[in-house]
Please model this.
Amino acid sequence: MNKKKLVVLTGAGISAESGIKTFRDSDGLWEGYDLMEVASPEGWARNPAQVLDFYNMRRKQALEAAPNAAHYGLAELEQEYEVHVITQNIDDLHERAGSTHVIHLHGEIFKMRSDRSLTPSYEIRGDIQLGDQAPDGGQLRPDIVWFGEAVPMIVPASKLAAMADIFVVVGTSMLVYPAAGLIDYVAEDAPKYIIDKAIPDVRRFPLLHTIENTATEGVKDLMQLLKV
Model:
């Protein structure tokens, strides 16, 4: 029997319960850093050493974190559904929890690439240092999508959203585009579930179910609703 296709969009809220700081605090800073200084091509051009240091810290933080019940719950849903996770997060907590189909819209903290080319990418668990060169001679940088850069994985993500039998959003404000626009691709007759402590303004969509809760508790509620 063919399993129903369950497509899940996740954001910072699902990783926050694993101790990973959310991307943007109310003051517009990310752990004391101006976002545009550490997450833009212009910031990289001005001070690549600072950018590398920042992501080296993020990499250590991700290594120390562990998947939480929400990550494990989504992985468990694969027993009954064909689950595809589209995440805005750069950590690998979905994979470590057991999810087998994961698209990272904004790149991956454990990958690096040349600053001259989008491909290829290379695995990295330690630090990237200024002067570390890719085979093409470019400086190695985190394989992260910065502000002002294209989001290449949005195309396959959009196609997945359009094919979803059920669409779920977990722990994202639905304010960051193009990710926030994925729900627009979902068929009108497909049930949609939004899990967040503060439900974003998406009530215009048909067949919308809201679960106002943390990611860990909300995914637990979702599993009950989906009878898993």
